[in-house]
Known about the structure:
The chain is mostly helical. 76% of the residues lie in helices and 0% in strands.
Amino acid sequence: xxxxxxxxxxxxxxxxxxxxxxxxxxxxxxxxxxxxxxxxxxxxxxxxxxxxxxxxxxxxxxxxxxxxxxxxxxxxxxxxxxxxxxxxxxxxxxxxxxxxxxxxxxxxxxxxxxxxxxxxxxxxxxxxxxxxxxxxxxxxxxxxxxxxxxxxxxxxxxxxxxxxxxxxxxxxxxxxxxxxxxxxxxxxxxxxxxxxxxxxxxxxxxxxxxxxxxxxxxxxxxxxxxxxxxxxxxxxxxxxxxxxxxxxxxxxxxxxxxxxxxxxxxxxxxxxxxxxxxxxxxxx
Length: 284
């Protein structure tokens, strides 16, 4: 539509007919309702730049985003949970100091800095991993599978470093908050094993604020990591969003942001339902 609006050879009558055929003469709330209804029915419109369906573009980029960002988030959870719990149980120990230092470094360093640092060290100097992510690589045998794994390690590790640092701080502070509660002292006074006290009492209450953080971060697995995908050239949804913003490709931008908003609402609901499992006091 921008091409027609800026074309001086098109008369105002033709321009008005084009606006009417596209539905742009209707009020904005009517246009939005029509677009939202069509979106929920699977019609996300067409890209202004590629002229292809937006749904096809998203489905083309989604597997890469799920593979890289999903594996990074899974790795961060596997690192942050045991490290945060052990850091809280061994407070002020050497393990706690090392884990806390790791958390502050991972939280303070932006992903574009660690990404460039990884590229310089592991790709340029050591040459362990490829410098660019090959989007055309097809996994057909063991060698291609290993190549796919090698090119995914650095972006996944950069994301996992940041996410595990954030998550570990929340886990550590939540567990520390529960350690000196009366119900924990009572459980220990009854002679329960430390593992039983930790698993059945402390963690069930400590995980409640952590669940909120995880639920709010899970939509990022589907919508991609904007900065990291740009640094490593990962052809995911995050890089698609940046490219669409630069090209003023409104249908793609609206589709990604709308999907992100829907996922935020869904996983907030999942977090609320999980509260009832962890703490029976909040069940309705």
